[in-house]
Amino acid sequence: MIDLRSDTVTRPTAAMRRAMMEAEVGDDVYGEDPTVNRLERRAAEIAGKEAALFVPSGTMGNTIAVKLHTEPGQEVICDSRAHVLDYELAMVAWFSNCVIRAIPTDDGILSWDAVRRHIRPPGPHWAPTGLIEIENTHNMAGGTVYPLGAIREICAGAHERGLPVHMDGARVFNAATALGVSVKEIVEPVDTVMFCLSKALGAPVGSMLAGPANLIAKGRLLRKRLGGGMRQAGILAAAGLVALDETPAKLGADHSNARFLAEGLARIPGIQADPGKAVTNIVIFNVSGTGFTSAEISARLKQSGILINGINERLMRAVTHYDVDRAACAQALEALAAAVLR
Ligand SMILES: *Cc1c(COP(=O)(O)O)cnc(C)c1O
């Protein structure tokens, strides 16, 4: 199977499996797992933050961050297709008792001007803003990347008003590759950042939440409360360390494969794709002109050994990663061209 449904489907590499086998472990709830401790130090260093916390999932990392930054009854500003809004089971409401103030954007990228107009001060009628959340790269907008200037402007404006900024950086390493800068430079102005080891970086499990030491210490308690206190988690952290060391250098290949896919898709009659927008590892394309629904195309593709999911009836999303090479992408394009023939 050529699996383009997500970059979460990557299997651990031989180096990761070896590191897992050999990992030194202890009880991480006691803070005694040397490999987890090493991963947390390394992640903090990469992000240029004081501390980092190993969490089982990106959703848990975002959930903890929202709770750390807000009080019940506040609003969290994010764009209208944000992962925290659409794909985290209303955790912002469930765990932090906040509501989301969603701002529509063209490409998932917020501007300070748009954010500024939605910030609410305390008053007799409205919930005050507690947090600004930005997603980089933006998943549902097709892996779009925040320009460094936009992040700096949003953070400067927010901080001037005493508001924190959290980055959902599930794929921030892809953003760094696309911009040719370090992750540290991207996340420098934000208060906290979550990034996934389990997506394009290829680790089997886990995400990191990085930020100021006092917040991360509180986050450790929230992680336990959410059921994320893991014991000999060094087995997992070992793979995460390899992912941080080895995978970022491979992301450029994923990006050029995504671009290749987008260019090929744009040539298939009835499919709309914009190769100029495929700047990282996600390609979103519109199949409405083919006369088939996404679900019908997915089913046909599956018969040729290709997995690609729809986002809705018209839009489909293909995600490249290290388990899919250029030849596999070419094969996926051929299968797609055949699948949409009447
Ligand atoms: C995948 C993803 C997450 C959450 O990660 P899980 O580990 O699946 O919980 C958060 N934000 C974005 C943008 C993602 O793509």
What can you tell me about this protein's structure?
With 342 residues, the protein is an alpha/beta fold. It folds into 2 domains: 12-246, Type I PLP-dependent aspartate aminotransferase-like (Major domain) (Aspartate Aminotransferase, domain 2), CATH 3.40.640.10; 250-339, Aspartate Aminotransferase, domain 1 (Alpha-Beta Complex). It contains 14 helices and 12 strands. A 7-stranded mixed sheet has the order 2-8-7-6-5-3-4, with helices on both faces. Helix 2 runs parallel beside helix 11 (234-246) and helix 6 (112-118) runs parallel beside helix 7 (148-160). The model has no long low-confidence stretch (mean pLDDT 97). Bound molecules: pyridoxal-5'-phosphate (PLP). Pyridoxal-5'-phosphate binds next to helix 3.
State the gist of this model.
It is built from 14 helices and twelve strands.
What number of structural domains do the residues give? Answer: 2
End-to-end distance, in Å? 24 Å
Which molecules are bound in this entry?
Answer: pyridoxal-5'-phosphate
The CATH topology of the largest domain is given as Aspartate Aminotransferase, domain 2
CATH superfamily grouping of the largest domain? Type I PLP-dependent aspartate aminotransferase-like (Major domain)
Summarize the main sheet.
Answer: 7 strands, mixed
Q: What string gives the helices and strands in order?
A: EHHEHEHHEHEHEHHEEHHHEHEEEH
CATH class (first level) name of the largest domain: Alpha Beta
Q: Residue ranges: pLDDT <50 for 5 or more in a row?
A: none
- Tell me, briefly, the overall form: globular
What average pLDDT do the residues reach? Answer: 97
What's the arrangement of strands in the largest beta sheet? Answer: 2-8-7-6-5-3-4
Percentage of β-strand residues = 15-25%
Tally of individual helices: 14
